[in-house]
């Protein structure tokens, strides 16, 4: 009777979740009140992103045995994968209360705090797990990741070095060592650990992302941008918004100061240009350098399909902007002038689409960008017609309507472009729940 349960556990250990589900269902056909089997089934289903069924199974496990800590652990894991961190925290805290001697429970607790940018709490939970099991891999890695976010890089390095000494075949530890070295601006050494991580686990996305960042970090401009991105990632969301809003209002104050002191305006101009260039680079650095990375025979293999698609769309906007600029410089055509300006601005929201999480945030950003593209065409069409058919005789009412539509589209596009800067940041920071 227990053979299906044992076989299911074995298949879970081999990450063969679909087969494990079949075995667990056979066991539950004989033992429908097995809390352990329901919990395991919930863990398998969530790995296959069958969130509703996974939640139902984990909740059933808790219902059948409310004092069984593993059932609460399974429910916490399901809630965590669904990005419902409040519910996950409540579930894992109950598991820890029932059994404070399981390092796996503290690992999930640390993960939840880490996902919510509570770095100190994540570190404390990881340390509690290591007090139970000093060699626990997940707690060790979470401890190192938390230390990096807290700026304690030397301690993080020591933690990872000790973990690698104990288990040099752990892919996640190598990946974390790579990210720690990236924080220390050592992309070449970081690359070695990312490659080793992928050798040990070819499907480890954390390491693949690290390889891409390490390759781009060889460029001095991107290395500076990466330092900024990593620094911002350490800040709580509210503080990140404070930095963004503070920079914007700082520039407004600088503008006002320049108007009141015209003699200082020439000295302030380089500061404003540098800030504008930096602000633009925070948006376009990732797809821009991914585009450049595709010229590298190894780089193009490291990029994910999503990164390739993102760089294609961004590259298309940049190409159209540069081509239009070339036409304008050669012909002084106003249609080309508008196209160069519009496609250049359009590249900014295009760049942020793939920074948004899949689901509603990305869909909303895509629709907003599509609306902006429609405004570009609305402003371009009358200009193109005037350029291609300069001798056309049209009724005055038609000409007036065309000019009105063109002016509306141009003005609306400029305001939409300004709005996209704020909307993009909001949507990029939004994490959809499943």
**Class based on secondary structure composition and strand pairing:** mainly alpha
Major beta-sheet overview: none
Question: Count the strands?
Answer: 0
Our estimate of the beta-strand percent is under 5%
Order of helix and strand elements from N to C terminus: HHHHHHHHHHHHHHHHHHHHH
Give the CA-CA distance, first to last residue.
Answer: 35 Å
Describe this protein with a few key phrases:
Serine Threonine Protein Phosphatase 5, Tetratricopeptide repeat; single chain; mainly alpha
Short overview:
By secondary structure, this protein is mainly α. The chain is 81% helix and 0% strand.
Structure overview:
- This protein is mainly alpha-helical.
- Among the domains are: 1-81, Tetratricopeptide repeat domain (Serine Threonine Protein Phosphatase 5, Tetratricopeptide repeat); 304-428.
- The protein contains 21 helices and no strands.
- It has helices spanning 3-13, 17-30, 35-47, 51-64, 69-81, 85-98, 103-115, 119-132, 137-149, 153-166, 171-183, 187-200, 205-216, 220-234, 237-260, 265-293, 299-302, 305-331, 334-353, 360-388, 396-428.
- Helix 4 (51-64) packs antiparallel against helix 5 (69-81) and helix 19 (334-353) runs parallel beside helix 21 (396-428).
- The longest helix is centred in the C-terminal third of the chain and has 33 residues, at 396-428.
- The radius of gyration is 27 Å and the shape is elongated.
- The model has no long low-confidence stretch (mean pLDDT 85).
